[in-house]
Protein backbone atom coordinates (compact mmCIF):
# COMPACT_ATOMS: atom_id res chain seq x y z
CA UNK A 1 0.00 0.00 0.00
CA UNK A 2 1.24 3.48 -0.82
CA UNK A 3 0.43 6.97 0.39
CA UNK A 4 1.49 10.49 -0.48
CA UNK A 5 1.87 13.17 2.17
CA UNK A 6 2.47 16.84 1.42
CA UNK A 7 4.13 19.20 3.88
CA UNK A 8 4.49 22.88 3.13
CA UNK A 9 5.31 25.79 5.49
CA UNK A 10 2.36 27.61 3.87
CA UNK A 11 -0.11 25.14 5.45
CA UNK A 12 0.14 26.91 8.78
CA UNK A 13 -2.51 26.32 11.45
CA UNK A 14 -1.08 28.30 14.38
CA UNK A 15 1.59 28.14 17.06
CA UNK A 16 2.65 24.99 18.89
CA UNK A 17 1.32 25.67 22.38
CA UNK A 18 3.29 24.25 25.29
CA UNK A 19 0.02 23.86 27.15
CA UNK A 20 -0.97 21.13 24.67
CA UNK A 21 1.33 18.86 26.70
CA UNK A 22 -0.51 19.09 30.00
CA UNK A 23 -1.40 16.27 32.35
CA UNK A 24 -3.64 15.69 35.33
CA UNK A 25 -3.17 14.73 39.00
CA UNK A 26 -6.39 13.84 40.82
CA UNK A 27 -6.91 12.58 44.36
CA UNK A 28 -7.96 9.24 42.89
CA UNK A 29 -6.54 5.80 43.59
CA UNK A 30 -2.75 5.98 43.79
CA UNK A 31 -2.16 9.09 41.69
CA UNK A 32 -1.26 11.27 44.68
CA UNK A 33 -0.54 8.81 47.52
CA UNK A 34 2.17 6.30 46.45
CA UNK A 35 2.16 8.11 43.08
CA UNK A 36 3.73 11.57 43.28
CA UNK A 37 3.89 11.43 47.11
CA UNK A 38 5.31 8.61 49.22
CA UNK A 39 7.43 9.84 52.15
CA UNK A 40 8.72 6.34 52.96
CA UNK A 41 9.97 5.67 49.43
CA UNK A 42 13.77 5.42 49.06
CA UNK A 43 13.73 8.19 46.43
CA UNK A 44 11.48 10.55 48.44
CA UNK A 45 12.75 14.07 49.14
CA UNK A 46 12.34 16.03 52.38
CA UNK A 47 8.74 16.90 51.40
CA UNK A 48 7.80 13.28 50.68
CA UNK A 49 7.76 13.54 46.86
CA UNK A 50 9.10 10.58 44.93
CA UNK A 51 12.27 11.59 43.09
CA UNK A 52 12.01 8.73 40.57
CA UNK A 53 8.51 9.91 39.57
CA UNK A 54 9.63 13.55 39.36
CA UNK A 55 12.45 12.50 37.02
CA UNK A 56 10.00 10.71 34.71
CA UNK A 57 7.58 13.67 34.75
CA UNK A 58 10.41 15.93 33.62
CA UNK A 59 11.55 13.43 30.98
CA UNK A 60 7.99 13.22 29.65
CA UNK A 61 7.97 16.96 28.96
CA UNK A 62 4.76 17.73 30.84
CA UNK A 63 3.93 21.45 30.69
CA UNK A 64 0.88 21.94 32.93
CA UNK A 65 -0.88 19.77 35.52
CA UNK A 66 -4.59 20.02 36.39
CA UNK A 67 -5.36 19.44 40.09
CA UNK A 68 -7.07 18.17 42.36
CA UNK A 69 -9.82 16.60 40.21
CA UNK A 70 -11.77 15.32 38.39
CA UNK A 71 -14.87 13.97 40.07
CA UNK A 72 -13.03 14.29 43.40
CA UNK A 73 -13.13 18.09 43.28
CA UNK A 74 -16.93 18.18 43.36
CA UNK A 75 -16.89 17.01 47.00
CA UNK A 76 -13.63 18.71 48.02
CA UNK A 77 -13.21 21.33 50.73
CA UNK A 78 -9.91 22.86 49.76
CA UNK A 79 -9.34 24.26 53.29
CA UNK A 80 -9.00 20.65 54.54
CA UNK A 81 -5.69 20.49 52.69
CA UNK A 82 -3.89 23.47 54.24
CA UNK A 83 -2.18 24.11 57.57
CA UNK A 84 -0.44 21.62 59.87
CA UNK A 85 -0.88 18.11 58.44
CA UNK A 86 -1.67 16.59 61.86
CA UNK A 87 -4.71 18.92 62.17
CA UNK A 88 -6.19 18.06 58.79
CA UNK A 89 -9.41 16.03 58.75
CA UNK A 90 -9.83 12.67 57.07
CA UNK A 91 -12.88 12.80 54.80
CA UNK A 92 -14.94 10.41 52.75
CA UNK A 93 -14.35 10.91 49.07
CA UNK A 94 -17.69 9.97 47.55
CA UNK A 95 -16.47 10.14 43.96
CA UNK A 96 -14.07 7.20 44.37
CA UNK A 97 -15.42 5.65 47.58
CA UNK A 98 -12.10 6.25 49.32
CA UNK A 99 -10.80 7.89 52.49
CA UNK A 100 -8.97 11.16 51.82
CA UNK A 101 -6.25 11.77 54.44
CA UNK A 102 -5.55 15.33 53.21
CA UNK A 103 -1.79 14.91 53.69
CA UNK A 104 -1.38 16.54 50.29
CA UNK A 105 -3.25 19.76 49.59
CA UNK A 106 -2.78 23.04 47.76
CA UNK A 107 0.59 24.02 49.26
CA UNK A 108 2.10 20.58 48.76
CA UNK A 109 0.87 20.47 45.17
CA UNK A 110 2.37 23.89 44.46
CA UNK A 111 5.69 22.77 45.94
CA UNK A 112 5.61 19.63 43.79
CA UNK A 113 4.68 21.67 40.69
CA UNK A 114 7.71 23.89 41.22
CA UNK A 115 9.99 20.86 41.50
CA UNK A 116 8.46 19.28 38.41
CA UNK A 117 8.79 22.56 36.48
CA UNK A 118 5.12 22.55 35.49
CA UNK A 119 2.41 25.20 35.43
CA UNK A 120 -0.43 24.41 37.87
CA UNK A 121 -4.02 24.45 36.61
CA UNK A 122 -6.45 24.43 39.50
CA UNK A 123 -10.01 23.12 39.48
CA UNK A 124 -12.59 24.51 41.92
CA UNK A 125 -15.63 22.82 43.38
CA UNK A 126 -18.77 24.18 41.72
CA UNK A 127 -20.73 21.00 42.42
CA UNK A 128 -21.29 21.04 46.18
CA UNK A 129 -19.82 24.50 46.82
CA UNK A 130 -20.13 27.92 45.27
CA UNK A 131 -18.93 31.44 44.56
CA UNK A 132 -17.61 32.20 48.05
CA UNK A 133 -15.31 29.17 48.21
CA UNK A 134 -14.10 29.97 44.69
CA UNK A 135 -13.21 33.48 45.86
CA UNK A 136 -11.44 32.11 48.94
CA UNK A 137 -9.08 29.78 47.10
CA UNK A 138 -8.14 32.45 44.54
CA UNK A 139 -7.38 34.82 47.43
CA UNK A 140 -5.32 32.10 49.15
CA UNK A 141 -3.31 31.34 46.02
CA UNK A 142 -2.94 34.67 44.25
CA UNK A 143 -3.14 37.62 46.66
CA UNK A 144 0.32 38.70 47.93
CA UNK A 145 -0.72 39.45 51.53
CA UNK A 146 -2.76 41.58 53.91
CA UNK A 147 -6.02 39.62 53.75
CA UNK A 148 -6.91 36.64 55.92
CA UNK A 149 -6.52 33.88 53.32
CA UNK A 150 -3.35 35.41 51.89
CA UNK A 151 -1.85 35.67 55.37
CA UNK A 152 -2.81 32.05 56.08
CA UNK A 153 -0.85 31.01 53.00
CA UNK A 154 2.14 33.01 54.19
CA UNK A 155 1.84 31.46 57.65
CA UNK A 156 1.76 28.05 55.96
CA UNK A 157 5.16 28.74 54.45
CA UNK A 158 4.47 30.32 51.05
CA UNK A 159 5.47 33.95 51.35
CA UNK A 160 5.01 34.69 47.66
CA UNK A 161 1.62 34.21 45.96
CA UNK A 162 1.36 31.26 43.57
CA UNK A 163 -0.29 33.44 40.92
CA UNK A 164 -2.14 30.51 39.37
CA UNK A 165 -3.39 31.52 35.93
CA UNK A 166 -5.62 28.69 34.74
CA UNK A 167 -8.73 27.72 36.73
CA UNK A 168 -11.35 25.14 35.83
CA UNK A 169 -14.83 26.24 36.92
CA UNK A 170 -15.88 22.85 38.27
CA UNK A 171 -15.62 19.44 36.66
CA UNK A 172 -17.96 17.58 34.28
CA UNK A 173 -21.03 19.38 35.58
CA UNK A 174 -23.04 17.87 32.70
CA UNK A 175 -22.57 14.34 34.11
CA UNK A 176 -25.33 12.77 36.24
CA UNK A 177 -22.55 10.97 38.20
CA UNK A 178 -21.13 14.30 39.34
CA UNK A 179 -21.82 15.51 42.89
CA UNK A 180 -23.89 18.65 42.43
CA UNK A 181 -24.69 17.81 38.77
CA UNK A 182 -26.46 20.73 37.10
CA UNK A 183 -28.56 21.68 34.11
CA UNK A 184 -26.70 23.87 31.59
CA UNK A 185 -28.77 26.87 32.72
CA UNK A 186 -27.90 26.29 36.39
CA UNK A 187 -24.25 25.70 35.60
CA UNK A 188 -24.01 28.68 33.24
CA UNK A 189 -25.24 30.95 36.04
CA UNK A 190 -22.91 29.71 38.78
CA UNK A 191 -19.91 29.57 36.45
CA UNK A 192 -20.54 33.16 35.35
CA UNK A 193 -20.88 34.47 38.88
CA UNK A 194 -17.87 32.53 40.18
CA UNK A 195 -15.83 33.80 37.24
CA UNK A 196 -16.86 37.44 37.84
CA UNK A 197 -15.90 37.24 41.50
CA UNK A 198 -12.60 35.43 40.81
CA UNK A 199 -11.63 38.11 38.31
CA UNK A 200 -12.42 40.85 40.84
CA UNK A 201 -9.69 39.32 43.00
CA UNK A 202 -7.24 38.64 40.17
CA UNK A 203 -8.00 40.08 36.70
CA UNK A 204 -5.22 37.96 35.17
CA UNK A 205 -6.83 34.56 35.74
CA UNK A 206 -7.75 32.43 32.71
CA UNK A 207 -11.03 30.64 33.27
CA UNK A 208 -12.31 27.38 31.80
CA UNK A 209 -16.03 26.62 31.77
CA UNK A 210 -17.14 22.98 31.81
CA UNK A 211 -18.09 21.62 28.41
CA UNK A 212 -19.23 18.07 27.77
CA UNK A 213 -17.84 14.93 29.40
CA UNK A 214 -17.84 13.27 25.98
CA UNK A 215 -19.30 13.80 22.53
CA UNK A 216 -21.80 11.03 23.24
CA UNK A 217 -23.43 12.85 26.16
CA UNK A 218 -27.15 13.38 25.40
CA UNK A 219 -26.75 17.09 26.13
CA UNK A 220 -23.62 17.54 23.95
CA UNK A 221 -23.90 20.63 21.76
CA UNK A 222 -26.85 22.18 23.57
CA UNK A 223 -24.81 22.14 26.81
CA UNK A 224 -22.04 24.21 25.22
CA UNK A 225 -24.50 26.58 23.54
CA UNK A 226 -26.48 27.30 26.69
CA UNK A 227 -23.45 27.56 29.01
CA UNK A 228 -21.61 29.88 26.62
CA UNK A 229 -24.69 32.00 25.96
CA UNK A 230 -24.62 32.76 29.69
CA UNK A 231 -20.88 32.79 30.39
CA UNK A 232 -19.23 33.95 27.12
CA UNK A 233 -18.03 37.31 28.40
CA UNK A 234 -16.56 35.84 31.60
CA UNK A 235 -14.61 32.80 30.41
CA UNK A 236 -11.60 32.16 28.19
CA UNK A 237 -12.03 28.49 27.31
CA UNK A 238 -14.59 25.72 27.41
CA UNK A 239 -13.53 22.18 28.26
CA UNK A 240 -13.88 18.89 26.40
CA UNK A 241 -13.25 15.41 27.80
CA UNK A 242 -12.82 12.18 25.83
CA UNK A 243 -11.71 8.63 26.64
CA UNK A 244 -11.30 5.86 24.09
CA UNK A 245 -10.87 2.11 24.39
CA UNK A 246 -11.23 -1.00 22.28
CA UNK A 247 -14.87 -1.99 22.38
CA UNK A 248 -16.83 -4.84 20.80
CA UNK A 249 -16.52 -3.06 17.44
CA UNK A 250 -12.90 -4.26 17.44
CA UNK A 251 -9.31 -3.15 17.03
CA UNK A 252 -9.60 -1.41 13.65
CA UNK A 253 -12.42 0.80 14.90
CA UNK A 254 -10.43 1.62 18.05
CA UNK A 255 -7.39 2.60 16.00
CA UNK A 256 -9.31 5.43 14.31
CA UNK A 257 -10.54 6.92 17.61
CA UNK A 258 -8.87 10.25 16.82
CA UNK A 259 -11.59 10.80 14.21
CA UNK A 260 -13.96 11.31 17.13
CA UNK A 261 -11.62 13.83 18.72
CA UNK A 262 -11.38 15.72 15.39
CA UNK A 263 -15.15 15.93 15.11
CA UNK A 264 -15.54 16.81 18.80
CA UNK A 265 -13.17 19.78 18.45
CA UNK A 266 -14.76 20.91 15.18
CA UNK A 267 -18.26 20.80 16.67
CA UNK A 268 -17.37 22.60 19.89
CA UNK A 269 -15.55 25.18 17.74
CA UNK A 270 -18.67 25.63 15.59
CA UNK A 271 -20.79 26.10 18.74
CA UNK A 272 -18.38 28.72 20.09
CA UNK A 273 -18.64 30.58 16.77
CA UNK A 274 -22.44 30.31 16.76
CA UNK A 275 -22.68 31.89 20.21
CA UNK A 276 -20.13 34.57 19.25
CA UNK A 277 -22.12 35.40 16.10
CA UNK A 278 -25.38 35.69 18.04
CA UNK A 279 -23.67 38.06 20.48
CA UNK A 280 -21.98 39.96 17.65
CA UNK A 281 -18.69 39.74 19.50
CA UNK A 282 -15.11 39.44 18.24
CA UNK A 283 -13.97 37.84 21.48
CA UNK A 284 -12.53 34.36 20.83
CA UNK A 285 -12.90 31.41 23.17
CA UNK A 286 -10.62 28.39 23.02
CA UNK A 287 -11.04 24.75 23.95
CA UNK A 288 -9.34 23.27 26.99
CA UNK A 289 -9.22 19.54 26.22
CA UNK A 290 -8.51 18.93 29.87
CA UNK A 291 -9.14 15.19 30.03
CA UNK A 292 -8.20 12.84 27.20
CA UNK A 293 -6.67 9.38 27.01
CA UNK A 294 -7.22 5.69 26.43
CA UNK A 295 -9.19 4.30 29.38
CA UNK A 296 -10.69 0.81 29.57
CA UNK A 297 -13.76 2.12 31.33
CA UNK A 298 -15.59 -1.20 31.18
CA UNK A 299 -12.85 -3.28 32.82
CA UNK A 300 -12.39 -4.44 36.39
CA UNK A 301 -9.54 -2.24 37.68
CA UNK A 302 -11.81 0.75 37.07
CA UNK A 303 -14.40 -0.25 39.66
CA UNK A 304 -14.28 1.68 42.99
CA UNK A 305 -14.79 -0.13 46.33
CA UNK A 306 -18.25 -0.20 47.93
CA UNK A 307 -20.13 -0.66 51.21
CA UNK A 308 -18.16 -0.01 54.40
CA UNK A 309 -14.85 -0.24 52.60
CA UNK A 310 -13.35 3.28 52.37
CA UNK A 311 -9.64 2.63 51.74
CA UNK A 312 -6.89 5.23 51.44
CA UNK A 313 -5.39 5.23 47.95
CA UNK A 314 -6.72 1.91 46.65
CA UNK A 315 -5.55 0.57 43.29
CA UNK A 316 -8.05 2.13 40.89
CA UNK A 317 -8.04 2.60 37.13
CA UNK A 318 -4.54 1.09 36.83
CA UNK A 319 -4.81 0.30 33.15
CA UNK A 320 -1.81 -1.41 31.60
CA UNK A 321 -1.37 -0.08 28.09
CA UNK A 322 -0.53 -1.97 24.91
CA UNK A 323 1.39 -0.82 21.85
CA UNK A 324 -1.95 -0.30 20.07
CA UNK A 325 -3.05 1.98 22.92
CA UNK A 326 0.16 3.99 22.53
CA UNK A 327 -0.47 4.41 18.80
CA UNK A 328 -3.93 5.78 19.59
CA UNK A 329 -2.41 8.16 22.17
CA UNK A 330 0.08 9.35 19.54
CA UNK A 331 -2.81 9.91 17.13
CA UNK A 332 -4.79 11.88 19.72
CA UNK A 333 -1.78 14.18 20.14
CA UNK A 334 -1.71 14.62 16.35
CA UNK A 335 -5.36 15.66 16.48
CA UNK A 336 -4.76 18.12 19.34
CA UNK A 337 -1.80 19.71 17.55
CA UNK A 338 -3.67 19.93 14.25
CA UNK A 339 -6.35 21.93 16.06
CA UNK A 340 -3.96 24.33 17.76
CA UNK A 341 -6.09 27.22 16.47
CA UNK A 342 -8.98 25.90 18.60
CA UNK A 343 -7.33 23.88 21.38
CA UNK A 344 -5.43 26.28 23.60
CA UNK A 345 -4.70 23.82 26.39
CA UNK A 346 -4.93 20.05 26.91
CA UNK A 347 -4.34 17.53 29.70
CA UNK A 348 -3.74 13.83 29.33
CA UNK A 349 -5.62 12.10 32.14
CA UNK A 350 -3.86 11.14 34.27
CA UNK A 351 -0.15 11.35 35.15
CA UNK A 352 0.78 8.57 37.59
CA UNK A 353 -0.76 5.12 38.28
CA UNK A 354 -4.31 6.13 37.32
CA UNK A 355 -4.82 5.58 33.54
CA UNK A 356 -1.28 6.86 33.39
CA UNK A 357 1.89 6.83 31.30
CA UNK A 358 3.96 6.63 34.51
CA UNK A 359 3.53 3.79 37.02
CA UNK A 360 5.01 3.69 40.51
CA UNK A 361 5.07 0.67 42.82
CA UNK A 362 4.82 1.47 46.55
CA UNK A 363 8.38 1.16 47.85
CA UNK A 364 9.42 -0.07 44.40
CA UNK A 365 10.34 1.18 40.96
CA UNK A 366 8.70 3.79 38.76
CA UNK A 367 8.36 2.74 35.14
CA UNK A 368 7.13 3.85 31.73
CA UNK A 369 4.01 2.54 30.03
CA UNK A 370 3.96 2.29 26.21
CA UNK A 371 1.94 5.51 26.13
CA UNK A 372 4.82 7.45 27.69
CA UNK A 373 6.84 7.44 24.46
CA UNK A 374 4.64 9.25 21.90
CA UNK A 375 3.83 11.90 24.51
CA UNK A 376 7.47 12.50 25.48
CA UNK A 377 8.72 12.61 21.89
CA UNK A 378 5.94 14.86 20.62
CA UNK A 379 6.44 17.24 23.54
CA UNK A 380 10.20 17.34 22.99
CA UNK A 381 10.13 17.80 19.22
CA UNK A 382 7.02 19.84 18.35
CA UNK A 383 7.97 23.50 18.16
CA UNK A 384 7.30 26.68 16.23
CA UNK A 385 4.28 26.50 13.95
CA UNK A 386 1.87 23.63 13.42
CA UNK A 387 1.50 22.64 9.75
CA UNK A 388 -1.47 20.73 8.38
CA UNK A 389 -0.33 17.66 6.38
CA UNK A 390 -2.31 16.62 3.32
CA UNK A 391 -2.65 12.82 3.23
CA UNK A 392 -3.68 10.90 0.13
CA UNK A 393 -3.50 7.15 0.58
CA UNK A 394 -5.32 3.95 1.46
CA UNK A 395 -8.53 4.26 3.41
CA UNK A 396 -10.23 2.30 6.18
CA UNK A 397 -13.97 1.72 6.26
CA UNK A 398 -15.03 2.65 9.78
CA UNK A 399 -18.52 1.82 11.05
CA UNK A 400 -18.66 5.05 13.00
CA UNK A 401 -16.79 7.49 10.77
CA UNK A 402 -17.18 6.13 7.22
CA UNK A 403 -14.14 6.11 4.94
CA UNK A 404 -11.05 7.51 6.69
CA UNK A 405 -7.37 7.73 5.78
CA UNK A 406 -5.20 4.91 7.17
CA UNK A 407 -2.42 7.43 7.78
CA UNK A 408 -2.87 10.50 9.89
CA UNK A 409 -0.17 13.12 10.31
CA UNK A 410 0.78 16.57 11.46
CA UNK A 411 4.03 18.53 11.19
CA UNK A 412 5.68 21.39 13.03
CA UNK A 413 8.11 23.93 11.62
CA UNK A 414 10.57 26.21 13.39
CA UNK A 415 13.51 28.07 11.81
CA UNK A 416 13.96 25.59 8.97
CA UNK A 417 13.66 22.57 11.30
CA UNK A 418 10.64 20.32 10.91
CA UNK A 419 9.12 17.41 12.82
CA UNK A 420 6.61 15.05 11.26
CA UNK A 421 4.35 12.87 13.42
CA UNK A 422 2.49 10.14 11.57
CA UNK A 423 0.45 7.08 12.52
CA UNK A 424 -0.42 4.07 10.42
CA UNK A 425 -3.85 3.11 11.75
CA UNK A 426 -4.24 0.11 9.48
CA UNK A 427 -4.54 -3.04 11.61
CA UNK A 428 -2.81 -5.34 9.09
CA UNK A 429 -1.02 -3.53 6.28
CA UNK A 430 2.24 -1.62 6.14
CA UNK A 431 2.13 1.61 4.11
CA UNK A 432 4.98 2.99 2.01
CA UNK A 433 4.70 6.74 2.42
CA UNK A 434 6.32 9.32 0.18
CA UNK A 435 6.40 12.76 1.74
CA UNK A 436 6.87 15.89 -0.34
CA UNK A 437 8.97 18.33 1.66
CA UNK A 438 10.21 21.89 1.33
CA UNK A 439 13.46 21.96 -0.69
CA UNK A 440 16.76 21.25 1.05
CA UNK A 441 15.52 19.14 3.99
CA UNK A 442 17.64 16.33 5.41
CA UNK A 443 16.73 13.66 7.98
CA UNK A 444 17.97 14.14 11.53
CA UNK A 445 16.11 11.25 13.11
CA UNK A 446 13.40 8.77 12.12
CA UNK A 447 11.93 6.58 14.86
CA UNK A 448 8.95 4.25 15.06
CA UNK A 449 6.89 2.76 17.88
CA UNK A 450 5.73 -0.68 16.77
CA UNK A 451 5.71 -4.30 17.95
CA UNK A 452 4.86 -7.47 16.06
CA UNK A 453 2.47 -8.15 18.91
CA UNK A 454 0.32 -5.03 19.17
CA UNK A 455 -0.91 -6.29 22.55
CA UNK A 456 2.59 -6.08 24.05
CA UNK A 457 2.54 -4.18 27.35
CA UNK A 458 5.34 -2.82 29.50
CA UNK A 459 5.72 -3.81 33.16
CA UNK A 460 7.83 -2.92 36.19
CA UNK A 461 10.19 -5.73 35.12
CA UNK A 462 10.41 -4.69 31.45
CA UNK A 463 9.52 -1.23 30.27
CA UNK A 464 12.14 -1.02 27.55
CA UNK A 465 11.53 -3.89 25.11
CA UNK A 466 9.26 -1.58 23.27
CA UNK A 467 10.25 1.94 23.12
CA UNK A 468 10.91 3.66 20.03
CA UNK A 469 13.47 2.31 17.57
CA UNK A 470 15.18 3.88 14.54
CA UNK A 471 13.24 3.44 11.31
CA UNK A 472 15.97 2.44 8.84
CA UNK A 473 13.64 2.68 5.83
CA UNK A 474 13.54 6.49 5.93
CA UNK A 475 15.47 8.10 3.06
CA UNK A 476 15.43 11.37 1.15
CA UNK A 477 15.81 11.73 -2.57
CA UNK A 478 15.49 15.31 -3.86
CA UNK A 479 12.45 16.85 -2.23
CA UNK A 480 10.80 13.52 -1.38
CA UNK A 481 11.17 11.46 1.75
CA UNK A 482 10.19 7.81 1.64
CA UNK A 483 9.50 5.66 4.69
CA UNK A 484 7.75 2.38 5.40
CA UNK A 485 5.22 2.57 8.21
CA UNK A 486 4.34 -0.81 9.75
CA UNK A 487 0.71 -1.55 10.64
CA UNK A 488 -0.37 -0.12 14.03
CA UNK A 489 2.61 2.19 14.37
CA UNK A 490 3.52 5.73 15.39
CA UNK A 491 6.48 7.43 13.73
CA UNK A 492 8.38 10.66 14.26
CA UNK A 493 10.75 12.10 11.69
CA UNK A 494 12.79 15.19 12.46
CA UNK A 495 14.33 17.20 9.62
CA UNK A 496 16.71 20.06 9.23
O1 LIG B 1 -9.93 10.88 34.92
C1 LIG B 1 -10.83 10.06 35.59
C2 LIG B 1 -12.21 10.69 35.74
O2 LIG B 1 -12.79 10.80 34.48
C3 LIG B 1 -12.27 12.09 36.29
O3 LIG B 1 -12.30 12.12 37.68
C4 LIG B 1 -13.55 12.61 35.73
O4 LIG B 1 -13.53 14.00 35.55
C5 LIG B 1 -13.74 11.84 34.45
O5 LIG B 1 -15.00 11.31 34.34
Structural key phrases:
single chain; 496 residues; alpha/beta; TIM Barrel; Immunoglobulin-like; 2 domains; 8-stranded parallel beta barrel; 7-stranded antiparallel sheet; globular
Briefly summarize what is shown.
The chain is an alpha/beta fold.
Give the helix/strand layout.
Blueprint: E1 2-6, E2 12-15, E3 22-24, H1 51-60, E4 64-67, E5 91-93, E6 98-100, H2 106-116, E7 119-123, H3 131-142, H4 148-155, E8 166-169, H5 184-201, E9 206-212, H6 222-231, E10 237-244, H7 251-255, H8 258-279, E11 286-294, H9 323-338, E12 343-348, E13 358-360, E14 366-368, H10 372-381, E15 385-388, E16 390-392, E17 395-398, E18 402-405, E19 407-414, E20 417-424, E21 431-436, E22 443-449, E23 469-470, E24 475-477, E25 480-485, E26 489-495
Parallel strand pairs: 1-21, 3-4, 3-12, 4-7, 7-8, 8-9, 9-10, 10-11, 11-12
Antiparallel strand pairs: 1-16, 2-15, 5-6, 13-14, 15-19, 17-18, 19-20, 20-26, 21-25, 22-23, 22-26, 24-25
Helix pairs in contact: 3-4, 3-5, 5-6, 6-8, 8-9, 9-10
Bound molecules: alpha-L-arabinofuranose.
Bound heterogens, unique = alpha-L-arabinofuranose
What is the total domain count? 2
Q: How many extended strands?
A: 26
Structural class: alpha/beta
Shape: globular
| CATH topology label of the largest domain | TIM Barrel
Low-confidence stretches: none
Structural commentary:
With 496 residues, the chain is an alpha/beta fold. It folds into two domains: 17-381, TIM Barrel (Alpha-Beta Barrel); 387-495, Golgi alpha-mannosidase II (Immunoglobulin-like, Sandwich). Helices cover 25% and strands 26% of the residues. The protein has ten helices and 26 strands. The strands form six sheets. The chain has an eight-stranded parallel barrel, surrounded by five helices. The chain has a seven-stranded antiparallel β-sheet with strand order 2-15-19-20-26-22-23, with helices on one face. Strands 16-1-21-25-24 form a five-stranded mixed β-sheet, with no helix packed on it. Helix 3 runs parallel beside helix 5 (184-201). The longest helix has 22 residues, at 258-279. The two termini are 28 Å apart. The relative contact order is 0.16. The model has no long low-confidence stretch (mean pLDDT 97).
Amino acid sequence: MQAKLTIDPAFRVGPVRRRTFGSFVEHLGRCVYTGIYEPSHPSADEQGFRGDVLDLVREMGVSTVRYPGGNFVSGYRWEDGIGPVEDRPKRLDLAWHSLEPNEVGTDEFMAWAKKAGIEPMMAINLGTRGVLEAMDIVEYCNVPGGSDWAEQRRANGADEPYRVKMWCLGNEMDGPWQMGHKTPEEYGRIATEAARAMRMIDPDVELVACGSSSRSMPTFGEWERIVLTEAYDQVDMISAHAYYWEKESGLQEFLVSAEDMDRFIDQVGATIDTVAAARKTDKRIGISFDEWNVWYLDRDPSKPPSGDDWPVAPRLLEDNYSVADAVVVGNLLISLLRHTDRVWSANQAQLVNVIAPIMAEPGGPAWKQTTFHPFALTSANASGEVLRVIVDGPTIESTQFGSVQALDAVATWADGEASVFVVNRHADEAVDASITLPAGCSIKEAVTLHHDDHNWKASAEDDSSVGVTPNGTAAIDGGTLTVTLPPISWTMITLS
